[in-house]
Amino acid sequence: MMSVIHRLTAGWLLDHLSFINQCGYEIYDSSAHPRCVSPNTCVPSAGDHCAPPGDAVETEGKTRKTRYVFREEFFDILKPHIVAAPQEQLWQGGSEVSLTETEASSSRVEHREGTKGDVGDLVASARKKRKRKCVLNQGELDALEYHTKIRELIWEGTLHLVQEGLRSGFLHCSTTKLSCSKNVVPRHIGCGLAELCEMAKQFPAINDSDHQPVQAIDDETFIPEQDLLSCVTENNSNRAKMIVLMGQKYLVPPKSSFLLSDISCLQPLLNYKKKYDVIVMDPPWENKSVKRSNRYGHLYSWQMKQIPVSALAAPNCLVITWVTNRQKHLRFVKDELYPHWSVKTLAEWHWVKITRSGEFVLPLDSSHKKPYEVLVLGRVQGSVEETLRKSDDVLPIPDHKLIVSVPCSLHSHKPPLTEVLAEFIKPDVECLELFARNLQPGWTSWGNEVLKFQHIDYFTVLQDES
Q1: CATH fold label, 1-97+151-466
Q2: Which residues form a coiled coil (predicted)?
Q3: Could you read off the pLDDT of 357-385 as tens digits, one per residue?
């Protein structure tokens, strides 16, 4: 699979959509029953009405191959969420911006946002913001100090990668394409898997000695919910599989495995008895806007420390944690969480989000949200004997790299790290993603929404042939 479009000293320009579509989502069906799917249409999920008989694909007595691709409109980020002032845009601005210019930029953004309300709201908002300008709280000061340190690295590195993307035609400076599709997220998505994990706690306890730690997906697509929640599920074949859970269809890529459970039910993952050379995690960090929207539950710091990384990690395991731009969370990972797991911090990388025309999705110096997120890379520190025994397999990790990509508009659908990490790990290592919301070939994935972005409604049928 080739999701890396360009590789420079600064980092990589990735194509997230291409990675998903090269995962091999081809379903081979020898069933005698026709399916109600027509090419180039969104795929009906379980419970939807069938198309008229004339639209069905007659496949009796034949094996039909159906290829699915992720819906392209979820990556149609054609323009920035907030347009930066000309001198702050990637093509016009300089690599250095003073604190005064940064605050002026924030004021301009806030003024543009304020014009949406009525005059009274605008005046009240302006008064509040003037007060905020006088005194920054400690969190804001810490964030500004951090941003000042990394700003030039992000600006220069992103500029070079975007220039390469424009030269090759992957990015388009003036994107005139208009998406006629709406990014309508199906109603049932995101509100069933986590609840199912809660319900599972009421199921009768299963005796581990009588229960297999792993189950393989065969041609039977209907898997009892209790089986799915009580052991790791594997697709060992070279073909994608489709499973049905609570009446909903999910695509499982080849050579992948997963456990659907919450943090209180991790024992099946430990029973799987695998040791991982790479562990990537995207924890549900506490966030004010997320709490207001009630999008997902968050974990407290003491809960994260309970994750049994030492029991899951192989010697010299590479641990990577996605962190929001709150300095409180970054300090927690580096100063508390990693030491608690005997992980030594090695580097901080950044994921930079751009539009399809190569602009930052948000002004780089916005005082509210930044167009980048942080990845903290560390390595498990084992005994001296283990370290020496595995030292030949350890490749050095660069202090700083950029991962630049057009982000998915679906919340918290992070870009894949498989090809990026390939330069720094040996082939055929065991990889684990914690708090995952999608599956990847060659990886084990765990989370209470681990199948979320595998739902068939996120895909389109590209071709349906016998």
Answers
A1: Rossmann fold (3.40.50)
A2: none
A3: 999 999 999 888 899 999 999 999 976 56
